[in-house]
Amino acid sequence: MDINVCAAFRGDSSGDHRADIKNCRLVVIRPPAHYVTQQLGETGNCTHELGVSYGSPNGAFPMGNGDTVVTEINGEWIDVLRPDGGPVTDTHPPGFSYPSDTNEVRPGVFLSVDYTDAGAIETFTATGRLLWRYEPTSSCASGRRAPPRGGHRQAKLASAVRHLTVGTASSAFCSRLRGAV
């Protein structure tokens, strides 16, 4: 079976945990043999049901407490799973239509990007309460039409992500992002 891995992290001695977007599942691959040792979700079942099936998972990343945060495109879900793959909770990132590669910033706080044009970045709680959001708009950007994906705009968004990992966002920071679109 073809595995289309979007995002992965190094797990414990049991293997590497990977999001397999094409087959709508999560897999654990144990090096050095590189074979699937565990599968979470039913291959081809691309609906969201916490702990049972995954709607096109595009990211699986470790959390500080050993849990895993999983991003699902279909239905815009963020899931938290125990180390054994059991469900903890799920939520929607507020206002997103295509969440991507959600990570834990600190306990109880997540950072995700909306993979739409012109995109957005936000932090939110495990219950889906919005804490901070940057979205290129006429009120926080120059109002110019967004360039094609990539280049200068993505560099600015990457700068925003780096800022979020070391501090909190503010309107002054938003002002520094002018020209991102």
Q: Report the mean per-residue pLDDT as an integer.
A: 77
Termini separation (Å)? 40 Å
Broad shape: globular
Helix and strand pattern: EEEEEEEEEEEEHH
Query: With helices defined by DSSP (H or I, 4 residues minimum), what is the helix count?
Result: 2
Biggest sheet overview: 4 strands, antiparallel
* Low-confidence segments: 4-10, 138-154, 162-181
CATH architectural designation of one domain: Beta Barrel
Protein structure class: mainly beta
CATH topology of one domain: Thrombin, subunit H
What strand line-up does the widest sheet have?
Answer: 1-2-3-4
Gyration radius, in Å: 17 Å
Strand content: 35-45%
Q: What is the helix fraction of residues, given as a range?
A: 10-25%
Q: Given this structure, which CATH class of one domain is correct?
A: Mainly Beta
The count of β-strands is 12
Q: Would you kindly provide a written description of the structure presented here, covering whatever features stand out?
A:
With 181 residues, the protein is mainly beta. The protein has a domain at 51-176: Thrombin, subunit H, CATH 2.40.10. Helix content is 12%, strand content 38%. It has 2 helices and 12 strands, in the order ββββββββββββαα. The strands form 3 sheets. A 4-stranded antiparallel sheet has the order 1-2-3-4, with no helix packed on it. The protein is globular and about 45 Å long. The protein starts with a strand and ends in a 5-residue tail after the last helix.
